Amino acid sequence: MDENDNELNDLFSSATASGGPIEADVLTELQSIMRLHSIPPQELFYKWESYSIKMGQDDMKLDIDTVRALKQNVQDGLEKENRKTKAHTSNKRMGAAPRNVGNNNDVFGMLDITPNTPRSGMSSRPKRKFETPSISRVKAEPASSPPDFRTSSNLNDTGAGATHAPTSFNDRPHAGQTVEVLNNHLEVPEPPIAPYPESRIKLTANSDMKKLSYKTMAMKSSEASEILDDRIDEFMLLIQAHHKLEDSDFGSAASQSTNEIVAVGRIACDSAEGKLNPSSIVLETSRRMGAGLRIPLKIDKMRGFQFFPGQIVALKGINASGEDFTVSEILEPPLLGVAASTPASLDDHVRRLRGSSDAMDDDSDPAPLNIIIGSGPFTADDNLDFEPLHAICSQAADNYADVLILTGPFLDIDHPLIASGDFDLPEEVLADPDSATMSAIFKLLITPAFTQLTSIHPSITILLIPSVKDAIDRHAAWPQEPFLRKDFGLPKAVRIVGNPMTIALNEIVMGISSQDILYELRHEEIIGENPQDSTLLARLPKYLIEQRHFFPLFPPVQRSQLPKTGTEDGIPVGAMLDTSFLKLGEMINVRPDMLVVPSSLPPFAKVVESVLVINPGYLSKRKAAGTYAKLTVYPASMTEQERTQGTMIGHKLFERARVDIVRI
After folding, report:
1. 3-state SS, one letter per residue, for 210-267
2. pLDDT of residue 608 exceeding 70
3. Burial of 340 (0-12, 13-18, 19+ CB in 10 A)
4. Domains and CATH numbers, the chain
5. pTM to 2 decimals?
C-alpha cells in the first residue's frame, strides 16, 4: 500500500460504514478522482466534506454509490468553472468602465472587508395574512404545503443533489436523534417536575460592550494598518517572554544576513487575488522590526507546518540571499492562562444551583445546569414559519433549561424571501404601512416564541447574539454591537450581547461569536505532510485559541468563494470586518472554558487545549432541519486541601460537562 493509500485511509476511515479501512473498489474510485483532477488526498477529503454538507447529510457514509456521486459532483464543478472562465474571456472588453455587479453594488470586490448596508426593498402589493406557528402547533399540527417558491439551489445546483426538494419540517427524518456525544459517562438527569422559582444563572460580561458601539463605514486605512502592525509587536513580546529570548535574538526576515534570527510577522499570500500555497507564502513584518516589508518564505524542510493568512507566527531561520527567508523552526506561541476562581466563589455558584434561597444551605448535590445552544438560520429557504425556532423553544420549555443561547442570523439577509421582499405580511402591519419594518417582522414572527417560552418557564435566561447577516441590525460590521431591544417587544428574560462576546455563566467563562470562522479557516489554511494536528475539526478551533482571537484570518475569504445562498445572485454578505476595531475580537485575559463557534461544517463537540469547543451546527439548513447542542454541566468540586489553601482553582469544565449534538 503506497503513501497516498495510507493517507486516504487515515482521512476517510471515519466516513466508512465500518469505521475502518476503505473498501478496494471505493479506494480505486478515490484514486481515479485524484489522477483525473491532480489533487492530493487532503484536498479530496475537503471536497468530500463539502459534498456532504451540500447534500445535508453530516453522517453520509463512503461507499461505491456515494463516491461515484462525489466524482460526478467534482466533474460538474470543474465544467461549471470552465464555462464561467470561457464566458468571462469572451465578454472581456478593453478599457471598459467598472459596472455594478448583481444587486450588491460591489464594483471593486471590496465588500469582504468593508461594512455595507443590507439590501432593502419590500413589495408594496397587498399581502395575505401570515401566521407564525406556536410551540403547540409545531408539536401537534401537520405542516402546510410549502409555497410555490423556487430557491436558487433548485436553479443553480449541479450534481447528484440538484433534484432534492426541501423537506417539510414536520416530515423531517430522525428528529431528536443524537448525532454526537462528548463525555457520555456523565448521565443526563430527568428534568425537574416544575421550573425553579429563581434563575440559577448569574451573568457577568467579560467584554466591554460599550466599545462595540463604534461608528461603521468610517474605517481609515492608517488606523487599520496600525491595528494590524501593533498585533505583530504584541505577539513578539509574548514570544520573547515565553521562550526567554534576548532582544538580539530577533531581527527582520527581510534583511540579508548569515546569522540565524527569530522573525515575528503575519502570514500572507504574495498576490491579493491568489490562494495561499507553499510557493506563494510570504511573511509580512511590522514597521518597527522590518519596515512593513514582505519576504517570501522557504518552508521546503518543514513537514508539520500549519499556516493561514493573518496568522501571527515566530519563525527561526536565515536570509542568506536577501531574496527569501529559509525557515528552520516554528516557535509555538504561548496560550492564555486557564480560567480559575477562588474556593469561596465556587461555593457561591454551587449554592446558586440549588435554585432558591430556601434550599441554599442544603448539603445535597444540586442538579446540573441544563444549557441549550442553537444557531441561525432559524427557518428554511422556502418559508418564514420559523418552525425550528419554535421547536428549540419547546425543548427548552419541556426540559426546564436554565439557559437558551441563540446566535443569529434571526432575520437572515441571505434568506431568499427576505432578500427579495416577496413575502406576505399580516393584516395588522398592512393597516399602517409605515410600521412594515424588519423590526415589526421580528416582533411578529420571532418574539412570540420567546414570550411563550418565558410564560411557561419564567426563570429561564435567554441569550441572543447578533450576526452581520441580521436584517434587523443597523450595525452591519464585525465586531458587532448588540441590536436594540426596544422595538422587538422581548421579555425581560432575554439578554442581548455583542458579537463576539466573552461572558461568564456563573463560574463558566464562555467565548462566543456568530461568524463562521471555521469554514473560512478550512478554506484558506495550508498544511504540511504530517501536520501537528491531523484532525481537521480540532485543528481549526486551535487556531483561535493560539491566536487569542475570534477571527484571526486576514483578509477574509472572498464572498464569491463562500457557500452559496438561496438569493438571486447566490453570494453571501461575507465577513464584514472593520479592521480598525479588530482588537475588540480578541480573547481577554484568560482562555475561555467554553468556545461556541457555529459553522456550516459538521457539528461537533471537542476538547482543545483544555477548552470545550462546540459547533452546534445550524438549526435550519436551506432545505432541511439542522442540529443544536445540549449541555449538562455538573457543579465544580474541590478537595479539602484546595479549599483550605484558598488558591485559585481551575474550572476544568471539559471534565464535568456532557455535550449532546441533537437533530432538531
Report:
1. HHHCCCCCCCCHHHHHHHHHHHHHHHHHHHHHHHCCCHHHECCCCCCEEEEEEEEEEE
2. yes
3. middle
4. 3-89 (no CATH), 165-215+337-663 (3.60.21.60), 221-331 (2.40.50.140)
5. 0.77
